[in-house]
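Study this pair:
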Amino acid sequence: MNATPRWLTSEQNAAWDSFIRMQERLIGRLSRRVHVDSGMSASDYLVLARLTETGGGRMRFMDLAKLVEWEKSRMSHQVARMAKRGLVAKEECPDDGRGAFIVATPAGCKAIEDAAPLHVAHVRRLFINALTQEELDTLARISNRVLAHMEKQPD
């Protein structure tokens, strides 16, 4: 027996739709700019940014996959493509024969160092400059609340 769905109210649907449209358009434009500016895909940029910001250029494969919320197979394919272009390298983990580290190569570090200032300028132009500091603070609180709520929910 199927339960009747709890449909969104018109206000809830309008909020959800506008959020999704904004997010998709923003990510799409930023992804295109990263590619035009640096030749990297948005996925390349994300991996290198997370490696260099969070892991000091080196992170366990599965920790990186969890950080960017990707399945193991997607991360494996992305790392393989990036390794072929010399942006990252895969190193075996001496403590765990099944584990591996992903390491940003000097070329990968240079690529993210060159791309990041342009990316930040586009984020500022397309997103930050559209909002007041109070709105940014509110958005950060809302985003953190949704993230905390999601942590309590099953996938």
In short: The two ends are 23 Å apart (CA to CA). The domain at 30-151 is CATH 1.10.10.10 (Arc Repressor Mutant, subunit A). DSSP finds six helices and three strands in the chain. The mean pLDDT is 94.
